[in-house]
Write a structure and sequence with these properties.
The chain is about 45% helix and about 15% strand. It starts with 5 loop residues before the first helix and ends with a helix.
Length: about 525
């Protein structure tokens, strides 16, 4: 079938086809498509291939999938996806765009963007700033909210099929992949699935299975005019794209974890839950991340057999290890971080969370964010003073406790980030841990008022509305018997002190992650 497209590929490779005879045409190739970069445009050609999961074997099918890809991707990147172009046979026998002759193939015309604006390039350059990650996550959350419900897909049966497929392909990847590790990953994933099957079915019934992106990794997110855009969603297989929204998110989380960006993965996860309130599905994320990593492991082995590139095989083995690590379990516990406004509670919570509990880390429940959720606004929107009266604050602490109980029950670590000025609030959070049957550690960050005031003066774009005047009016009720930590020390020193305390209390292990999959499972 590839020979039938030889003339089309030659045509699209020439600058003269785009009215620029001397113009350079670059190509980006995958096993199912070729993208031709010419001037300010990109033209995507679907290869004439047929696999078990995709069929582009005829011009009619390629046209259908080009039009479907255009429609689906215009949901998230309308500025990027422009139109479908026909490649027609001219009177002289040559090819041209959208002529009167017979159409022999079709391409998707797109707006071209700089490769350095891809998030995988930004990640490699250290450019995934907190602000960018928040913007990306908000874009994903809004995309999922608007996505059509897909009731005929998802649920436990769909997850079981993915795990079975992974098991088969991982074993076929041996001996390039460790067969024992592959068996253990598959067995553990299936056991976790069976324990979570009722939750998967409940989410399917609740409309959490939607027509998602399906291939949501860093390489399929770009910046257009400074705004993140999701592109190149899967159009050719509904089993891949009509999935639980958290399985869609899990691909991005897995990609970040594979790159060693655990803190960033945790930040994305927490922001997503903050914006969507979808805390009920949190127990599924370790399984979903493991499933995504296992897919990448056997896909890369297949690529390695074609290319013999050593880095590809090394990546496949790393993905298999991550698939096992994602299924590692730790007893949940509750960590509360309190202190006056400006003491750095959120900074320390974020620095710790990615290292605590199962992937993608602890659920950070921040009073400032919960307050904004209660009042129906985005975290960075300022609230009036009335939103901070005693009654409103009581609602905030009650909502935090309710969410914390649900997360602990799902087997995840909780980090509560709030001032905890009232003695009753500190007593209540300790009692919450006792009711949940989990360990507890309270941390109190301390710093001089002048330091706190200076920090608050420099705060921008944060969920907290507190300023120096608010801080100076705060009063700590009663004696605080939590672990005191010097908030003027560097964040690394503060994290080290808290980590030491968690070890002493037996709430964490010295190095729970990074071992082989066999040790973790």
């Amino acid at each position: 079938m590839a020979e039938a497209q030889a003339g089309v590929i030659a045509f699209l490779s020439e600058g003269s086809s785009y009215g620029a005879p001397e113009g350079l045409v670059e190509r980006i190739e995958t096993h199912i498509s070729i993208v031709f970069l010419a001037g300010e445009r990109a033209y995507k050609l679907k290869r004439a291939v047929k696999f078990s999961y995709v069929d582009y074997s005829t011009p009619a099918l390629r046209e259908m999938y080009c039009r479907r890809e255009l429609a689906l991707n215009q949901r998230s990147a309308p500025e990027l996806y422009l139109r479908v172009r026909a490649l027609t046979r001219g009177a002289d026998g040559g090819l041209e765009f959208d002529g009167a002759g017979v159409a022999v193939d079709f391409v998707l015309e797109m707006r071209r963007f700089a490769q350095e604006d891809l998030l995988d390039c930004l990640a490699a350059a250290g450019g995934l700033t907190p602000a960018l990650l928040r913007a990306v996550t908000d874009e994903i959350a809004a995309f999922h909210e608007a996505a059509a419900v897909a009731p005929g897909f998802g649920g436990a049966a769909a997850a079981r099929a993915v795990i079975a497929g992974n098991a088969k392909n991982l074993m076929q990847a041996a001996p390039l992949l460790d067969a024992d590790a592959a068996r253990e990953v598959s067995s553990a994933a299936l056991a976790v699935l069976e324990s979570l099957a009722p939750l998967l079915e409940a989410r399917k019934a609740a409309g959490k299975v939607r027509r998602c992106h399906g291939d949501l990794h860093l390489g399929n997110i770009c910046l257009l005019e400074g705004r993140p855009r999701l592109f190149d969603c899967i159009e050719f297989n509904e089993d891949f794209s009509c999935i639980d929204v958290l399985y869609d998110l899990a691909f991005l989380l897995m990609d970040l974890l594979h790159r060693g960006l655990a803190a960033q993965a945790n930040a994305v996860c927490n922001r997503y839950l903050d914006r969507t309130g979808d805390v009920g599905g949190l127990a599924l994320l370790p399984l979903f991340i493991s499933m995504r990593a296992a897919v990448r492991a056997h896909v890369l082995v297949a690529q390695y057999r074609n290319t013999l590139a050593a880095h590809t095989l090394a990546a496949a083995r790393a993905y298999l290890a991550l698939a096992g690590e994602a299924l590692w379990r730790q007893a949940p516990f509750l960590l509360a971080i309190g202190g006056l406004s400006g003491s750095g509670k959120s900074t320390i919570a974020a620095a710790l969370a990615g290292r605590l509990g199962p992937v993608p880390g602890a659920r950070v429940i921040r009073s400032d964010v919960v307050r904004k959720w209660i009042f129906g606004v985005a975290p960075e929107v300022r609230l009036p003073a009335a939103a901070y009266d005693a009654a409103a604050s009581a609602r905030v602490y009650a909502a935090m406790e309710e969410q914390a109980a649900a997360v602990l029950a799902a087997g995840h670590v909780v980090v509560l980030d709030a001032a905890f000025l009232a003695a009753g609030a500190r007593t209540a959070v300790r009692a919450l841990a006792a009711r949940a049957g989990v360990g507890f550690c309270g941390v109190w960050l301390q710093a001089p008022v002048a330091v706190l005031a200076a920090r608050l003066a420099g705060r921008r774009g944060d969920a907290s509305d507190a300023d120096a005047a608010v801080m100076r009016a705060q009063a700590v009720e009663g004696e605080v018997d939590w672990l005191g930590v010097d908030a003027t020390a560097g964040s690394g020193a503060q994290v080290a002190r808290i980590w030491e305390e968690l070890l002493l209390r037996g709430l964490i292990e010295e190095a729970p992650r990074g071992a082989s999959a066999r040790k973790i499972l």
